[in-house]
Amino acid sequence: MSTAAHSAQGSPTAPAAAHKPKTLITLLLHNRLAALGLVLILIWTVTALIAPWIAPHDPYLTDMANKLQAPSGSHWFGTDNFGRDIFSRVLYGARISIWTGLIAVAISFLIGVPLGGVAAYYGGRTGTIIMRLMDVLLSFPSLVLSMAIAASIGAGLTSAMIAVGIVGIPEFARLMFGQTVSLREKEYVEASRAIGVKNSVILYRHILPNALAPLMVQATLGMGFAILTASSLSFLGLGVKPPIAEWGAMISEGREYIISGQWWLVTFPGLGIATSILGFNLLGDGFRDVLDPRLRSGK
User: Fold this and answer.
1) How far is residue 47 CA from its own chain's centroid?
2) What is the pLDDT of residues 234-245, one digit of tens each?
3) In whole angstroms, what is the distance from residue 253 CA to residue 242 CA?
4) Burial class (CB within 10 angstroms; exposed 0-12, middle 13-18, buried 19+) of 79
5) Coiled-coil regions in this chain (predicted)?
6) Full set of structural domains in the chain with CATH
7) What span, in angstroms and rounded, lies between the C-alpha atoms of 29 and 189?
8) Taking the model in full, what pTM does it have?
9) Which residues of the chain have pLDDT under 50?
10) CA-CA distance, 2 to 281, in Å (whole number)?
C-alpha cells in the first residue's frame, strides 16, 4: 500500500481536544462569572445586529436647537454637542467596536497561530528568527506599537483593525509555540511521522485541534483587548474619525465638556467600552476554567 494510502487510511487519530458543545455550554453556565460575561456579550452582540431597528433616532442627524441636552424621556442618554442622540450613537457604536474586535482577533489568529506552529515544529534557524521577531514586537507597549502602525498606515477604521491585529500576533504565536512543543513528541504525532504523513497535515489535523482550548481562551480575551485598543486609537485620532458613531471617538468629542457638567457625553460610551471588555474577560476566564482539566479537578 502506498504512503498516500497510509496517510488517508492509517493515520493515527489524535485524541479529541474539545468538549461537546452542550457540555461546554453547561459548564460555562454553571460558572457564574462566565455566565455573566456571556450575557453581556450577547446583549451587545444582539444590540449591534438590530441597532438600525431599535435606535430611536438617526445617530448622525444633527439638531443644534437641542444640543447638550441632559438625559430625558425623549433622549435617554442625552444629546451631544451637535444635538445627536447619544443613545442611538452608543447602539451604533457597538457595531463598530465588535466588528473591529472580530477582524483584529482574526488577523492575530490567522497569522500568529501558523507562525508559532511552524517555529515550534520545525525549530532551527527558522523557528529562532520567528520567535525573536515576536519578542521584538512584545518588547513595545501594545498601545504605543498600535499607534505607530496606525499612524504609518493612515487613520481610519481599516488602519485600526490592522494595527490592533498586528499587535496581537505575538500572543497567539507564543501560545501556539508552547502548545506545539508539548504536543510534537506525543505518540500519535510520532506515529503519523513514521507512516509518512506530511508535516503540514500533522500540524493541521493533530496538533492544532489539541491546541484549540488555550487558543479559544486567548481569542476571547483578545476581543476585549482589541475593543479597548481600537477605542483608544479613535480617542487619540488614529482610528475611526467623527462623525462615525464609535465609542472611543465619542469620548474624544465629549471630553472637553466634562468640566462644564455635561457628563453624559463620555459616561455612556465609556460604559459601553467597560461592559463589553468585562464581558469578554469574564467569558475568557470561564473558558480557561472549563477547558483546563487541572482547574476543573481542583473545584
Assistant:
1) 18
2) 999 999 888 899
3) 8
4) buried
5) none
6) 19-57+78-297 (1.10.3720.10)
7) 34
8) 0.86
9) 1-21
10) 49
